[in-house]
Amino acid sequence: MVRPCRQCERREGTIAQLTRELDSARVQLALLSAERDGLRTQLTSSEAERERLEKARDRLAARLKLQLSHRFGRHSERGDQAGQDGEAHADGDAVGTSGVGPEKAKRRRGQQPGRPSPRRRSYEHLPTEEVPHDFEVEDRPSCPSCGEAYEPFGEEPHEEIHFEVRIVRRLHHRARYRRRCHCVEAVGVVAHPGPPKPIKKGRLSIGFLARLVYYKFGLGFPLSRIVALLSAEGGQFSPSSLIGALDALGPLISPLAEAIRRHNAVDGHLHVDETSWKVFVLVENKTNHRWWLWVFVGSDSVAFHLKPSRGRDVVIEHLGLTRNEDDRLCLPGGRELLLSSDFYTTYQSLGAEVAGIDNAWCWAHIRRYFLRCGEGHIACKGFASAWVERIRALYSS
């Protein structure tokens, strides 16, 4: 048997060692490959998480900026001529300000220099009261040299607009007649009925009540101001007396108000809005005094509803909505209605669910969303400003 040489043994040992090292390297490579794949997966997940966090950060930053603007910024939505509403378009073109260039000076309000003054307004339609004026006999003018008295030489008219408010006490003397015959069936004493009284046994005249209603609801004066106004003219009235008079007039005006509501409900185009209104009365199952004043503005009428809720039942009741054969709410008689309003969910649901109602959203409210978009997102500033300018052009057209 031939023994291998030492050199061959060393070579075989080296080969075996290298083989073991190669196997170990392969195992380590497999482990590293698996670790690499895991790191790649983790990196992909981290990148997705980073993108998600960046988007969340941008959303929170936009909300924070918007909230800071609402809390500490300017509350008016009116934009500057070359300011926030006159930004550049998204494509870089500048948005004009309704055709007014920066080189033109802004026109001041009021009378313009170099323009003729407006004509004086005529008040000849007002009732005219002639008031003569003459000197007393001893004060009539005379010649300072000889003392000869001046002779009359016509009149010099002078117009004066006078405003007069008087509170008077009228004492009506009603004639009475006594029976002279001996007929038992006849009434013993008959008196003239006197002026008509809207409020039975009331002391306020028709003119006073009409002025009270006009001050309260026509001009919107609070009751305390009406009391102060009457007090300045010498009339001392307690607020409770005026409240009682207005409360007694309600049944007299309600038929007219109901007729206006019925006429308003059949209009083809209504502007609808609601606002909170304090009513200090106790209502069962209602814990606060917040009511809602609804307004329906038609082409020739305005209807108001004061309700304790803000639900869509108020609109359904006013419009007299019914259900068709498909159990869907619809307008009576199959008519159609264009409803102009803000984005309140009540109006959205009515437009989506009621057959015959089409929504026309208020551009002033749409404009707010573009303003908020431009305030919260810098990248959308040009886009939002362009739309704000389009809305401005729409209002000025």
Tell me the structural class.
Answer: alpha/beta
Residue share in helix = 40-55%
How would the global form be characterised?
A: elongated
Radius of gyration from the CA trace? 43 Å
- Cα distance spanning the termini: 116 Å
Largest sheet: 5 strands, mixed
| Percent of sequence in beta strands | 5-15%
Would you list the SSEs in sequence order as H and E? HEEHHHEEEHEEEHEHH
Widest sheet: strand ordering: 5-4-3-8-9
- The low-confidence parts are 82-103
Q: How many H/I helices?
A: 8
The average pLDDT is 86
**Number of β-strand runs:** 9
What does this structure look like?
Helices cover 41% and strands 11% of the residues. The N and C termini lie far apart (116 Å). About 6% of the residues have low confidence. The chain is elongated, with a radius of gyration of 43 Å. The chain is of the alpha/beta class. The strands form three sheets. The chain has a five-stranded mixed β-sheet. It has a two-stranded antiparallel ribbon with strand order 1-2. α7 runs antiparallel to α8.
Q: Strands, helices and their partners?
A:
Elements: H1 6-72, E1 176-178, E2 189-191, H2 206-218, H3 223-232, H4 239-265, E3 269-278, E4 290-297, E5 302-307, H5 313-319, E6 322-323, E7 329-330, E8 337-341, H6 345-353, E9 357-361, H7 363-376, H8 381-396
Parallel strand pairs: 3-8, 8-9
Antiparallel strand pairs: 1-2, 3-4, 4-5, 6-7
Helix pairs in contact: 7-8
